[in-house]
Design a protein that fits this description.
By secondary structure, the chain is an alpha+beta fold. Strands 1, 2, 3, 4, 5, 6, 7 and 8 form an eight-stranded mixed β-sheet that branches. It is elongated and about 90 Å long.
């Protein structure tokens, strides 16, 4: 639950809303820290990671949910202590489910509680055992720590919901041997009928310009070696060093990276050597040792834009890979603080330009590219 824990980060000049919660990081010892969760699906647990990468950190124990007795713990600049008979409310699965719900909430999308209540509505409209089973499965899909809050009723908590999805004669999972009697069930049905009337009478609140568009989960484009041509390259096709030849000003370069480094130097010999280098890394090393073109630092972003347009115009299959990223934020790994994200500290210009080219491809497909 987000509550009043509202934060944000800037990405590509856009404010990305977020929230935070406490968590333990295990890096040798255990450290109490804040886990920042953002609407674009990035999570900061001592470094920005995607949801998929966060799950791996959970499974590995880097983000810790198991707290061993006697382990040393630190809260930076605050205190150091040892666990004594610790009890954790979370498992990796439970914490991951809560984080997924939080990302949905930040985007205004239905979370597990909303999906459960929608399934309950379906059951109440057509009271079959099949619909009850679907509502019961949706109830148990809500993280256990959040079920008490599902109805927003801190007097009854989730009791009416549990009774309804269990049904008369059914055994309550939390209370082995205890079954739901008909009177309890009728009270639960009446509770939901009254709740439905109250919700129907509540005035709707819709922004004048319509609902906000949710943010797609961010996509991380990590460095990976060696890159080779493939019929199914996946997101590696979006890397500048992916071997996709580009034709620029009458020359053909093995990759965008080759072209970028060749065009960066004022020395014709070094330019040809960078163009013909076996790898993008070799092209970079060739260009780095040669003089830069005058005004290169100010012009390089425009040059990269033209090279990316050339790549995805000349390679329709790779353009499809880029289009398939929808409107996700593209987080590009690079040693350069200008071109790469660098853990949220870099300017991520490659990721930003990929998003611009992607938008241009969408506009071209839709036939709405303006002429000037």
């Amino acid at each position: 639950m987000i509550g009043n824990r509202i934060t944000s980060r800037m990405a590509d000049g856009v404010r990305v809303p977020g929230t935070w919660r406490h968590a333990f990081i295990r890096n040798g010892d255990y450290f109490l820290t804040d886990l920042f969760i953002y609407a674009d699906g990035l999570i900061d647990c001592w470094g920005l990671v995607t949801l998929e990468e966060f799950e791996r950190k959970l499974r590995s124990g880097w983000v810790a949910t198991e707290l061993p007795d006697g382990a040393r713990v630190s809260a930076h600049d605050l205190a150091v202590w040892k666990f004594s008979e610790p009890h954790s409310w979370h498992t990796p699965e439970l914490l991951l489910a809560e984080v997924r719900d939080t990302i949905d909430q930040l985007n205004g999308r239905p979370d597990s509680t909303d999906r459960c209540l929608a399934a309950v509505d379906v059951f109440l409209a057509e009271r079959t055992e099949e619909n009850r089973a679907a509502a019961r499965a949706a109830y148990y899909a809500i993280p256990e720590t959040q079920r008490h809050y599902a109805l927003g009723d801190m007097d009854r908590k989730d009791e009416p919901l549990l009774v309804l999805v269990t049904g008369p004669g059914g055994e309550l999972e939390a209370l082995p041997g205890e079954t739901v009697d008909q009177e309890e069930y009728d009270e639960a049905v009446a509770y939901f009928e009254e709740r439905a009337r109250w919700l129907a009478e509540r005035p709707a609140r819709v922004p004048a310009d319509g609902p906000a568009t949710p943010m797609a989960p961010a996509i991380h484009l990590p460095q990976s070696y060696p890159l080779k041509p493939s019929d199914d390259p996946g997101k590696q096709a979006l890397r500048n060093d992916y071997p996709a030849p580009v034709r620029v000003d009458g020359d053909t370069y093995p990759s965008v990276a080759h072209a970028y480094w060749a065009l960066s130097t004022a020395d014709p010999v070094a330019r040809a050597a960078a163009r013909d280098a076996d790898t993008a890394f070799a092209a970079r090393n060739t260009a780095v040792g040669a003089p830069r073109r005058e005004g290169w630092e100010q012009a390089r972003t425009a040059v990269m834009t033209a090279l990316l347009r050339a790549k995805f115009t000349q390679h329709p299959a790779l353009a499809r890979v880029l289009l398939d990223t929808a409107d996700a934020t593209l987080v590009y790994d690079d040693d350069s603080g200008h071109w790469g994200d660098n853990g949220g500290r870099g300017r991520n210009w490659t990721g930003r330009l990929l998003e611009v080219v992607r938008s241009e491809l969408h506009a071209e497909q839709a036939g709405i590219t303006p002429s000037v």
